[in-house]
Amino acid sequence: MSAASSPFPSTIVTGGTISSIVIGCKLQVLHGNPPEYRKAEILSIRPTPTPEDASRSEYYVHYSDYNKRLDEWVVPERLNLLGEIEYPKLKKPKTVLAGIGKETGKGSEPGTPGGAPAGRVAKNNRKSNLSKAATAGKAADAASPAPAGTSAAPGTPGTPGGATPAAGNNKRKASAMDEAGASQEKDGQVPAIKVNGEDEDEDDEGDNDGGQDEDGAGEYSKEREIEKLRTSGSMTQDPHEVARVKNLNLIQIGKHEVETWYFSPYPVEYAHLPVIYICEFCLSYFPAVKQLSRHRTKCSLQHPPGNEIYRKDNISFFEIDGRKQKVYCRNLCLLSKLFLDHKALYYDVDPFLFYVMTVRDEDGAHLIGYFSKEKESSEQYNVACILTLPQYQRMGYGRLLIAFSYELSKVEKRLGSPEKPLSDLGLLSYRAFWSEAIVILLLEQHKTGVELSIDDIASRTAFQPTDVLHTLQTLNALKYYHGQYVIVLSETVIKNAERAMKKARREIDPRALVWKPIHFTATQLRFL
Hints:
Elements: E1 11-14, E2 26-31, E3 36-47, E4 57-63, E5 72-74, E6 84-87, H1 118-143, H2 165-175, H3 182-185, E7 194-195, H4 200-203, H5 222-231, E8 250-253, E9 256-259, E10 276-278, E11 285-286, H6 289-298, E12 307-312, E13 315-321, H7 326-337, E14 352-361, E15 364-374, E16 381-383, E17 385-388, H8 397-412, E18 417-418, H9 424-448, H10 454-461, H11 465-474, E19 478-481, E20 484-487, H12 491-502, H13 522-526
Parallel strand pairs: 8-10, 16-18
Antiparallel strand pairs: 1-6, 2-3, 3-4, 3-7, 4-5, 8-9, 10-11, 12-13, 13-14, 14-15, 15-17, 19-20
Helix pairs in contact: 9-11, 9-12
C-alpha cells in the first residue's frame, strides 16, 4: 500500500509552532560552523535544566545521513519552524474483539470475556496472583545473595553450589554493585524524559534479557532502563531506547576539553551539566572544577593503578586486573562508552584484563588509550574493547595499541583477533594495520626467495588466518593461477607499503616488554 493510500499517512506541513513539535518530527535544524540548516529527526524532548526557563524544552536531534556521533541537544531557536515539518506516522490502533472465546462453539457467560465462567475466572486470577508472587519471590532471592551460613539446593541462583549459568550471572550482578565510589553510586531519581522508540519488530532484537516485564511489556522508561544498566552489567542494554540519547555533551580530562559522541550511564544528575570534570589519573568524575581541585589534593595517583609492563621513550603500558581494581576499571569503561557505540561494555570487570597506554611528562603518566581482553577467551580474542581517546587520535597511537596487543599474543604463542563487531573507526584502523604488516612481511620474504602461505603469514604475525584472508581479499591480492591461488601485490600496494616504511614513527620494541602471561586456574576463573 502506498503512503498516499495509507489510512495513517505521515503528514508534511509548511510552518508550525514550537508546541506542535513532538518526538519523531523531521525538520530543518541549524548546525555546523558556519551554521546551515540540515534535516534532522527529533529523538527526545526534555525540560531545560535552569529554573528560570522551566517552561522551555530542549530537543535531541539526529541529523539525517550523518553519523550518530553528531547527535546533540538543541534549543528551540535552532529549529526552523517556518519550513517543512514532517510529523510521525500514526500507529494503527489494536482492536480487541470482546465476547469471542479461543475455542469455537463455546459461548460466553455474562460478565466473563472469552467464555470462562465467573468462578473459573476468579480461580484463574488467584492462580495468576500466586504465580506472580512466586515469581517476585524468586527474583528477590536471585537479586540478593544468600547470607553467610545459609544453604540452598544445588543450582539455586546466588549460591556457591549453583552450577547453572544463572548462578554465575547473579554473582556478577551482585558484585557489580559493591565497591563503587560514593560519588558514583548516589544517582537519585531519574527525571521524566520522552524517548523515541523503534518499531515493535525491531525492539525484539534489542534486549537480551530473554523476556519482558509483566507490568509493562513493550513499554520503556528511562528509570527502568537505567535500573537495568545498574543491575545487569550491560552498558548497552537496549540501543533502541535510552542508549540512543547522548546524555553528556562535554568532558574535561587533564588539559583537554572533549566533546562526547555517545550515551554512557553516568549518574543522571550529571546529564544537564555543561561540563563533567574527570581526574585523568583515577578517572573519578565530578560536577564542578572546585570539587576536582579538592580531589586532586587528596588523590595520590600519578599513573594507572597496575603493573608497568612496557616502557620506551615516554610511552608506557600498564596491566590492570579488573578484579583487583574494580573502581578504576569501571570508571574507564564509563569513559570509553562515551566514544564507543558498537561494543557492549560491562560494570562487571572481573573477567577482564586492561592494558592502559600512557604518555609520561613531569606531571605523571597521562591516559592515551587502552584495550581490554578476557582472561579466558573461548574464541581466542586478544582484544575485547579498544579505544584511543579523541584528543590523541590521528597521531599513530591507535596503531601502537593494536601492535602491542599482537605482541602479547606472540609472547603467549597464540593467534589473536579482535572481538567482533568492530566500530567503523576500529575496522579502518585494524584493516590498515593488517594490510601494512602483511605487505611488508611479503616484500621482505620476497627478497629472500621464500614463499609464504596464509598459515605461514598467520604464525609470523600472530594474526588469525581468517583476518589474513580477509585482508588479502581487501587488497585484491588473491589470484587464481594454474589451478591454485597465489598472492600477487599490485604496484599501488607496493608503493604505499614502501612509503609507510620510510615514515619515522613509533614502533613497539619487543625488548622493552617485561611480561609473562598470567595463567588462571579453573578455580579462579570459576568465580569471575
